[in-house]
Each structure stands twice: as C-alpha cells, then as structure tokens.
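Regression test case RT-17, inverse folding.

Input:
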C-alpha cells in the first residue's frame, strides 16, 4: 500500500483492471462481428435519402444481425465463455483484495497513525520504524517481543527470496542452449506466474499457507515420493497451459496491440529502447531487497547501460541506416511539401499511409546511427554499471569490448521489442518448459526446499539464504575465506550472500545483527574507508596499478579528495559527515546519480540539514547513532522531509556502490587461477553422481542433481601474499543471525519442527507436529509485474 500510494489508488487500479478486461474482450468481438468493412473502406456504396456523406454508424451492422453472427461462431462463443469465467474469478479476487486493502488501511491509520494523504510522502524507513515501535507497545506479533527490520523483510519477501535463491543456484530452467541461437534466456511473466503457482500458492503447492512449508517437505525420508507427486502436478499444470494456449495467445496479442500501438505511433523509436529483463531483475536482486529498492538501483544504472550497449552498433548497419534514412526522408519531404501546397493531396489513396510509414522508417533508422560525439569507453561504462547493479561475472571485466560480453549483458538488459516478443511467445513456450524441463528437476526442487528452509520466530518458514549468514552460505572467494563452513552445494554464487548482507546493513542502518556479523560488516567498511582515503591522498588516479583494490577505489573516486572526509562507521553523526562526503562525492559520482541531473546534491543536503536542525533533539539523536537520520521524513514541511530522505538515501546508495566495486575487485584478485562458477559458466546440474566432490559426498546428505562441476578448493587458489594476509587479517568469522532464527542450532523444545545440525545438510528433525502459527499484519510490497498479491490480514 505504501508503494501504491494508498487505498484509493489501489482500489481504482483494481476497478480499472476489471473494466479493461471487459473492454478488450467486448471491443474485439464487436470489431470482428459487428462492422461492415466494405462500407468503411468505400468498397460498397450506401444509399442515403439526402446527399450527406457516409458516417461511421453506417458501417455498423444491425444489432440482430450482429448477435446472430456471434452465436453462429463457435470459436467466439468459446472465447466469451472462457473470458467470462476468468472475469468472474478476477471479480471474486477483487472483492477479497479490497477487504484486505481496507484492513491494511485501518492498520496504517489506527496502529501506525498515518493517514492516506500522508502515505505518498512518507519514506519506507519511516513506515518500517513505526512498525518496529508498534510491536513494542501492542505486540502485533505474539511470538517475539521485538520485531527487527529483517523480520519485516522476511515476511514481505518470503517467496521472492526463494525465487532469487533458485535462480542463483541455477535450479530454475530459464537458460537454454539452442542449436542456432546458442545460449539463450527465456523468463517471462507467464512462466514466473506458473513457477509461483506450483511452488507457493497454487492448489497442491509446497506451502500450506503464506508462512509455513508443509511438514512432509521438511523430512527427507519420502523425498522420491514427493518428487513424483510434484512432477505429476507440474505435468498437469503444463497440460492445462497447453490447452489454454490459444485463448492466452489471443489475449496476449490483443493486449499488446491495444497497449503499444499508440506508443509506437507517437514514439516509433520506443521499441528500440531497452529495459531490464525479468531474468535480469531476478539475477541482480539482493536477498531481502524490496521492489522499489531494486528498481531504484537499476534505474540509476539505466543510462550507463544504454550507453554501453550503444557502443556496439554495427558500422555496416550504420551505413545502411544512414542511406535508407536519406531516401525515406527525401520521399517524406516531397509528400509533406505537396501537402502544404494543396491539402487535397491527402485525399489520394495511401498518401497518408505513406507519410506515416516513411516517418516511422526514418525514426527507426536514426536509432541505428550513433551519436558522432560519443566516445568508445566500454570498460569505464561497465565499471559504472557494476557500481549500481552490484553483480557481474568475472570474465566481463577486462573484456567489455567483446561482443560475447555484450550478448551476455543483453540477456539482462534487453530491447523492449524483444520483451514484447517473448511475452507473445510465452503461451506457447511455457507449457514446453514445464513439461519437458521443470518436471525433470522435481527431485532437486524437493531437496532445495528441505535443505534451505529454516523456521524463524516471528516470521515463519523462510529461505535460509535470506538469513545472509556468512558461516552457512558464504563463499570463500568472496571475502568469506576462513569464516564459512558451507560446502559447494550450500554456497551462494556470485557473492550473493556477502553483497546482500552489505546492502541490507547499509539500507537499514538501525538493524542490529549478531556480533560476528556486525564485526564482519564493520571490518569491511573500515577496509574500504582505509583504502579509499589512502589511495586518494597517496596516489594519483592516472598512475595507479590495476593490481590493487586501492587503485580501483582511486579511479572510481576520480578526485584526490573525494572520500577523505567520508566515514563509514555507525557511531559518527551521519548528517555532519554527509555534508562533506556528499559535496565531494557528488562531483566524483555525478555520473552514477540520477539526482544530480535535476537537483544539486550540495543544495539538497543543506536544505535537508536545515530540516533536520529544525526538529528539537534531532542532531543529538543522529550524533548518537548515525542511523536515525534516514528514518526521519518529516521536517518543517513534507517537502523538506522528502528531501532529507532523498539525500540520505543517495548517500547510502553511493556507499553501497563503492563497497560493491571494492568487493568485486578483491574477489577478482583472490580468484585468479580458480575455475569460474558463476551463472554463465557453471552447469545447471550434474547428471552423474560421480561428479560430486569428495568434500560434499562426505557430508552424507541426500543426493540430487544440483551440484556444480568439480572445482578446486578455495584454499588451493594462488593469491598474492599481501592480498591474502590483508583479507584474513581484515575479517573475522561470521555466524548465524541471532537467536530469533531456529535453524542451525540443533533441536529445541516446545514441540516445534526445527532444523538440526545433526541431520545431513541441515535437514529437518521432527520432534512432533508443529503448532499452528498466527502472525501479525504487515503491509505488503507491490509486485513489479502485478502477480497475485499475498496479503497478511490485519486483526
């Protein structure tokens, strides 16, 4: 509700969705059966008693004739029946959603003391802080005394964290090797909808409710039986998709036609624009990252990503586009000149059509002609992109100029036209993927949910990767060497655990993790700060060796005094240090920040500082914690509150960008000589159990086909002594996330189903049947692709 701007906006959106469905179906049937196109195209003359011109109603077929034509067409009747059933389903869902929205509205007004008019101007940090405070007073969650920020994120992002983890472990069949096209990614909204239907909320899904995995999936004794049952369910859902394919395909075509035709007419080059693909949003998403946080981060990298892709325009295509644009422009100029001289030219058949098509042709050709002032610098652009998206395969760095890197990046950042084409093909391809690809992975899926599900007090069953526990899921090559106990099967790929932990800690500075995790975060921040200030004061940016992380930091900061005054600790006043840090950082990072194009950060910070200073005691609170400032969104006016939140959010984004680039550079040094295991190199599964490493086999957990190929042990990776010693000295062991998680800690009392360290792979040891749980209400996060919402009811 917070991201959708309140109850009224959500209600109107739901109503217009119902009206839109009726309009698309009714208007399409009307056009197909109730219009005489011979009269419309002047192929048939209409006899009028007077000499009036032919009007549009003359082309409409009489109502009785139209009804007869509809009844006699069996296919149209079938489509109307299917559409009616689907509309009734949406109507029932609309009524249910409105009831849930009303309860959430009451929760905001009565519990959080926030009116719907204030909600669009409040930051998420303020809403979250109020929920934490309400828990202390009213115990909205009965299972624990205090809620943490991580508990709130777990509840909102429970299912999305599972999806991110499955994509990270290459469990979902979304990457394919095709004979001619090579390596391809196919992940659409329809396919994602079916994945969620099978795993989370559909009939016979793995979850019995919104917060609890079914008990039978927590035990490993009947894994083969459960896998066969899941495979059978996937088969039937695939067959249902196959039977409904014609109806869904017609709907997709009609919806795309009504949605994009006007846009293409107004902006013909819009299909040549790019967008972050659905797979890219899932691959680049941190654990415990809300939709608006993800889209804000990717939007900041959009401009640099577009410039990078534009570096690879084909010279041959550019020559052809220039000449085609010249010829088409010449014809267009003549037609426009004739029209200006005498408007009767427009009455000539196909002249208006020719003008329109020629204009579209010229616009499309111009999109293939690069800017003559553009400088080819792919490595620098890719570095800027990394600062925002935070994830990038190792082999991209240093190979940004290669077409292989460009093609792989295009899987994350695709053309809008490709996105539309994939959505149109989705009804045909989705049943094939479900029946022939996903069904074969049923045993691996069962093992995944059993091995990587933990019960968290106050949050229910969550994905263990979302705990961001370095000890359980850290990767030795990503600053976790000597601190993780995870096997290859347990390790998150591409530094997902480490980067997600840093992102969550920076985004939620009031979060209090375990002591070991706090030490890991503070050590990393101190190292980044030390390298940044050392590189800035001791080294010139253009005379640095690329073999050291400090050289990267210096190049990234550009200026000699960029971050000399920025302190990344938690115990210094955020506002006081942000004044110097942002003013200097804005000049160095202006290409990374969209705010700098419309609002000067220095002026914004001074305005935010004044807003904060107007509130009594605010400066002292900030000085004590350095964290409360980001939760302050109400100053002397709503605008100043928003400005404060904007500037402080920009500070956090810049801080995370620097940490992400530093972690990647350090990983690049540590992993020299190691076989890459990121998404573009590792296999989706091993078909033979002989490929399971000995260290994994010795753990004696149920085998599946999810293990990657054998890789050398991280301890055998040759690294420089200086880098290795600094890495070990700068980090200490990180452990599990607090006492609220009932995982990895052995059996507990109270008749709960808990994870036991004695069960292979952290499986489930059943003491007795789990007691039913009820959880308090939390506002739901809106979905970026409008999937069916899962609403926690407010009691």
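Golden output:
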């Amino acid at each position: 509700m917070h991201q959708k701007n309140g109850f009224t906006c959500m209600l109107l959106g739901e109503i217009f969705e119902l009206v839109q469905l009726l309009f698309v179906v009714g208007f399409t049937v009307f056009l197909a059966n109730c219009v005489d196109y011979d009269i419309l195209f002047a192929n048939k003359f209409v006899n009028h008693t007077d000499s009036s011109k032919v009007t549009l109603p003359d082309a409409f077929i009489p109502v009785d004739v139209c009804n007869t034509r509809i009844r006699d067409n069996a296919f149209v009747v079938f489509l109307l029946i299917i559409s009616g059933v689907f509309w009734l389903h949406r109507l029932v869902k609309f009524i249910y959603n409105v009831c849930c929205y009303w309860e959430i509205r009451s929760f905001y007004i009565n519990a959080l003391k926030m009116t719907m008019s204030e909600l669009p101007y409040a930051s998420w940090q303020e809403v979250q802080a109020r929920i934490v405070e309400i828990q202390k007073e009213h115990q909205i969650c009965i299972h624990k005394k205090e809620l943490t920020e991580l508990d709130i994120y777990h509840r909102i992002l429970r299912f999305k964290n599972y999806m991110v983890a499955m994509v990270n472990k290459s469990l979902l069949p979304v990457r394919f090797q095709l004979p001619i096209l090579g390596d391809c990614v196919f992940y659409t909204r329809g396919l994602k909808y079916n994945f969620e239907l099978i795993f989370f909320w559909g009939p016979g899904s793995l979850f019995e409710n919104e917060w609890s995995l079914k008990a039978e999936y927590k035990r490993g004794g009947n894994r083969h039986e459960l896998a066969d049952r899941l495979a059978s369910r996937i088969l039937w859902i695939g067959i249902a998709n196959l039977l409904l394919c014609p109806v869904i395909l017609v709907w997709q075509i009609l919806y795309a036609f009504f949605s994009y035709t006007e846009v293409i007419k107004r902006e013909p080059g819009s299909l040549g624009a790019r967008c972050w693909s659905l797979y890219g949003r899932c691959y680049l998403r941190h654990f415990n990252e809300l939709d608006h946080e993800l889209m804000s981060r990717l939007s900041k990298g959009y401009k640099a990503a577009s410039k990078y892709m534009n570096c690879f325009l084909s010279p041959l295509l550019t020559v052809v586009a220039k000449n085609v644009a010249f010829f088409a422009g010449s014809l267009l100029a003549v037609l426009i000149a004739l029209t200006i001289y005498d408007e009767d030219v427009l009455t000539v058949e196909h002249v208006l059509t020719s003008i329109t098509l020629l204009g579209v042709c010229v616009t499309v050709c111009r999109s293939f002609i690069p800017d003559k002032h553009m400088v080819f610098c792919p490595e620098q652009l890719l570095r800027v992109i990394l600062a925002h998206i935070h994830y990038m395969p190792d082999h991209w760095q240093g190979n940004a100029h290669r077409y292989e890197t460009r093609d792989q990046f295009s899987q994350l950042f695709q053309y809008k036209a490709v996105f539309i084409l994939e959505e149109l093909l989705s009804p045909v391809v989705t049943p094939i993927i479900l029946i022939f690809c996903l069904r074969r992975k049923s045993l691996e899926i069962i093992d995944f949910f059993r091995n990587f599900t933990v019960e968290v007090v106050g949050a229910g069953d969550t994905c263990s990767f979302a705990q961001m526990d370095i000890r359980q899921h850290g990767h030795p090559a990503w600053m976790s060497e000597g601190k993780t106990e995870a096997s290859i099967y347990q390790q998150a790929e591409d530094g997902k655990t480490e980067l997600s932990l840093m992102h969550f800690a920076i985004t939620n500075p009031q979060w209090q993790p375990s002591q070991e995790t706090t030490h890991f975060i503070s050590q990393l921040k101190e190292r980044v700060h030390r390298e940044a200030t050392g590189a800035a004061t001791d080294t010139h940016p253009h005379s640095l060796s690329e073999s050291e992380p400090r050289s990267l930091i210096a190049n990234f900061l550009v200026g000699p005094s960029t971050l000399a005054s920025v302190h990344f600790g938690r115990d210094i006043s955020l506002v006081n240090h942000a004044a110097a840090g942002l003013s200097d950082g804005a000049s160095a990072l202006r290409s990374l920040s969209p705010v700098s194009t419309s609002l000067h950060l220095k002026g914004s910070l001074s305005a935010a500082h004044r807003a904060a200073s107007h509130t009594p005691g605010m400066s002292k609170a900030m000085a004590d914690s350095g964290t409360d400032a980001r939760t302050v969104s109400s100053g002397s006016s709503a605008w100043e509150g928003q400005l404060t939140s904007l500037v402080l959010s920009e500070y956090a984004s810049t801080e995370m960008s620097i940490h992400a680039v530093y972690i990647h550079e350090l990983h690049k040094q540590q992993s020299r000589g190691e076989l890459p295991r990121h998404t573009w190199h590792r296999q989706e599964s091993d078909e033979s159990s002989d490929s399971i490493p000995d260290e994994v086999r010795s753990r004696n957990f149920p085998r599946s086909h999810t293990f990657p190929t054998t890789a050398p042990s991280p301890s055998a990776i040759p690294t420089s002594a200086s880098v290795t010693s600094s890495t070990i000295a700068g980090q200490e062991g990180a452990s599990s996330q607090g006492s609220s998680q009932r995982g990895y800690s052995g059996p507990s009392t109270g008749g709960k189903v808990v994870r036991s360290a004695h069960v292979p792979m952290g499986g489930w040891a059943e003491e007795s049947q789990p007691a039913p749980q009820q959880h308090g209400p939390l506002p739901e996060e809106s979905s970026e692709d409008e999937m069916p919402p899962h609403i926690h009811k407010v009691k």
